[in-house]
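Feature request, filed as a ticket because there's no other form

It would be nice if the structure record came with a short human-readable summary line next to the tokens. Right now we just get the raw output. Example of a typical job, pasted below so the devs can see what we mean:
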Amino acid sequence: FERPVNRVLLSNKLNICATGFSENEFITQILIELVQYSGDANLRAASYNKLTMTQTARIKEIIEPYLNLYFQEKQKLKSGD
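Raw output as currently delivered:
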């Protein structure tokens, strides 16, 4: 498949096949997969698990605040605030 994270429909679990990715890319790929099943059918990957450029841009727009929040909170925990 094309993406390192995909949802297995029968078990409703994420199949993660990612090695060599940074934490940022890993979290991004998980969020991309989760957003596809958020209720907006236009964001789901079509054949061969591929997203169009339009879908990818919209999904990244949706997940960016969550990704930023994740790393902000992680930084706070790291610094002890």
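Something like this underneath would help us a lot:
The CA atoms of residues 35 and 41 lie 10 Å apart.
DSSP finds two helices and two strands in the chain.
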